[in-house]
Amino acid sequence: MKNENHEQNHEIPPDPCSPINLEKQLCIRQTKDVTYEVQTDEKGEPIVKLDITGLLNNITSVLDGFIPSEDVKNMNTLRRMNHALIDYRQIHHTNVIKFVQSISMREILMTGNDQIKSITKFLMHSALFRSLRNEDRMQMLKSIWVQWKRLERYASTAQIFGKRMYEDQIVTLVPGLAAYLNKIHVDCASFIYKKAEGMKFFMENFNTRMMEEVGKPLVELELTSVETAFMLAQLSWQVAGW
């Protein structure tokens, strides 16, 4: 992949909401598969309600309609899952990585919707996962997709940037966008309002630990794609408790 050596400002789409009124329903937004509504509770604190019906319907269609491609029919399970991982990375990574200084939670959420559907396809290459009932598959997806996505993101960042990942504290945010951990601003205002500063402090500490405990070892291991696929598959079953 081609890396750009300079930072670029990334234009965040304008917030489609009307002006905030904390006394009433605050805002309803629609992403591709998710509607999220910001309201206030009895104490006047903002809360977010997500309607993920559209996303669940799309995931169910993947579970019900998945057919392995001809390319993987003669492969063992690990090679099938590696094939799926390569497909995932082709879909979700671009040829140019742009460095940004700001990103909105709305943009992260929209990307996550697409990624969870691709993670579903990854798991469907496992005969054991396909043998589960749909409700068990869905429960497993709910429990593992965040960890799966996070580990894959750090693994792919390590592959792209090598030692620069932890020396310069670089992490990919969403497909095609990367940032320096000490410079990135995540706009959480549309989701948590008054609690944004507390979330910012939590995320900074979390990202620092992830870089030291996960990012740096991944760079040093220099994993192949097959090894990464094995690690992601093992993570999925371990986290799900199967």
Automatic annotation (TrEMBL):
Keyword hit for Transcription: yes
Taxonomic superkingdom: Eukaryota
Signal peptide, first to last residue: none
Keyword hit for Transferase: no
UniProt-listed Pfam families: Hormone_recep (PF00104)
Domain NR LBD intervals: 70-242
Annotated keywords: Receptor, Transcription, Transcription regulation
Protein name (database record): NR LBD domain-containing protein
